[in-house]
Amino acid sequence: MPSSRNEDSFSKPYIPIDTDVVDNIQHYAAGRIHVTIHFRDRDGSKKEMRGFIADTYTTEDHEEYLKMVDGRTLRLDQLIEVLPRETGP
């Protein structure tokens, strides 16, 4: 039976990320800035997702996540980089 915890969680302990990175993520969320996110998937492969960040949150296990407007979530220690998307010319 699936766990009630986020199915995208790594099985290893969470490693907190730099607070400056979290500040940038919160800035992108507050400014409704379209972003490109590069991250490592559970199997270690590099992945990319694009969209708008809704918020960040911390679980009772002290794991930090970002939540996209469309509902996708990502544990912050999976991040490689979060970049604002370029808009048209």
Task: Note the main attributes of this structure.
89 residues, mainly beta, 5-stranded antiparallel β-sheet, 5 strands, 13% helix, disordered N terminus
Report a brief summary of the structure.
This protein has 89 residues and is mainly β.
Structural class: mainly beta
Roughly how many Å is the radius of gyration?
13 Å
Mean pLDDT: 88
Number of helices: 1
Describe this structure as you would to a colleague.
- The protein has about 90 residues and is mainly beta.
- The chain is built from one helix and five strands, in the order αβββββ.
- The chain has a five-stranded antiparallel beta sheet, with helices on one face.
- Mean pLDDT is about 90; it is low at about 1-10.
- The chain has one helix at about 20-30, and strands at about 35-40, 45-60, 65-70, 75, 80-85.
- Strand 3 (about 65-70) and strand 4 form a beta hairpin.
- The chain is globular.
- The N and C termini lie far apart (about 50 Å).
- Helices cover about 15% and strands about 40% of the residues.
Question: What's the structural blueprint in terms of helices and strands?
Answer:
Layout: H1 19-30, E1 34-40, E2 46-58, E3 64-68, E4 73-75, E5 79-84
Antiparallel strand pairs: 1-2, 1-5, 2-3, 3-4
